[in-house]
Amino acid sequence: MEGTAAETDPVRARRARITAAARLGQRIGYGLFLASLMLLVVGFVTSFTPLLVGVTTACLVGGSVVLAPAIIAGYAARAAEREDRERGI
Which residues contact 69 (CB under 8 A, 6 or more apart)? Predict the structure, then answer.
C-alpha cells in the first residue's frame, strides 16, 4: 500500500517538516508578542519596575527573532507547494 505524497517524496516530506516548524515558530512568536503587550498593560496599570521592563523587552526581541524566519519559511513552503500544483507535479 502506498503512502501519501509527503511520505514517498523526500522533498515534500522536508517541506512538510518546514511548514510544521514554521507554524510552531509563528505560534511562539505571536505568543511572545501577546505576552509583551500584556506586560506593557500591567506596567501602565501598576508601575514599570526594571524587571517588568526587561521581561517586556525580552518578549519583544524574542518574538521578533522567532517570528521573522518562521513567516519567511512558511511563505516559501507554501509558494513551493503552489508552484508544484501549477506544474502538475
Answer: 25
